Amino acid sequence: MSMLQWLVIKPLGILRSAFAWMIEKTVQSIRTIMSTIPKATRSVIEQLVVTPDRWDSYPTIDRSTIHNALFRNTDTTTRTTRCVLTDVTVTGDSRRTEISRSELTRCVVTRAKISRSQLEDTKVTDCEEVGRTKATRTQLNGATSVTRSDLDDTMVMGRSSMHRSTAVGSVVADSSQVERSTLDRVIMTRSRVNRATLTNCEMMQCEVYNTTFEGMTLKYGIWRDGDLVGRTCEEEVIARPKSTSSNNNELPRMGGMPSSSSPDEPTGEPSTSRPPEKNAHISDGVSVSSSSSEDEDLDERGPPPPYSDYHPEPARSFRVGNVIVEGADDENVRLFFGNVHARELM
């Protein structure tokens, strides 16, 4: 045998032996798992509990890794394929539950279909489809479809759906639809949102397309490309800032506390300023003079009172077409609706 043949044949023999050893170990592990866990193939399972403990109650497990899982009221239609489950509870309850190509940690799944998702500290109940989604500290209860989304501390319920969206600290309920949008601290009911960005908003029975809102309460309106184009029902459209009510209810500042408002606003302290005298020199080359008529007016009015009463301006409401804007001023109305005629409501 030449040196070249020895260099080629010897490594092939070593690889053949290693491959045969790996196949033998794999077959042994599969036989061990099949003998201890019914309906489980090519899986690594630790601390699996199935109730009731009958053959028909065991789920179908294939190519999965399971650590500390509880399967309750499941059957053969409950399938787990290519998954990693850690501290997970799965409940069948006469409806097919299927988890495939997903990673679940500290989750509760009841009658749902989950695929290609990563869920942590999440509860999924009665969901028809959860796919390609990452969720943390989230509840999906009765959602029709949640796909390609990123959810954190969010609730999606009541036949609602989300697609290609991001939500943080939000609630999507009552058959709402969210597509290609970003929600941050939003409460939404019976609404539809597409390509929108909402921050700290409350929305009821609205449609928003390609529009951005922040700190607003919206009801019964349809917004497209930043403009109000219609309404969803016979009710008046409502759009008002969420923070205005808290600002209007702010208590007046007491004496001795600096005010961040305009200098003309009374602060509650007695006025110590006096009108300038005739030809009183303020600086070199500059003087302030007052006419005799001004002095007579000051004498008639007398000195300023020791205290001034503070009367906060009440909240105002405007009507722009079929829209009622509450707790705003003229500048906010023009900023929100453009250069339109607004009639103040008494």
TrEMBL record:
<feature type="compositionally biased region" description="Low complexity">
    <location>
        <begin position="283"/>
        <end position="292"/>
    </location>
</feature>
<protein>
    <submittedName>
        <fullName>Uncharacterized protein</fullName>
    </submittedName>
</protein>
<feature type="region of interest" description="Disordered">
    <location>
        <begin position="239"/>
        <end position="315"/>
    </location>
</feature>
<keyword id="KW-0732">Signal</keyword>
<feature type="compositionally biased region" description="Low complexity">
    <location>
        <begin position="254"/>
        <end position="263"/>
    </location>
</feature>
<feature type="signal peptide">
    <location>
        <begin position="1"/>
        <end position="20"/>
    </location>
</feature>
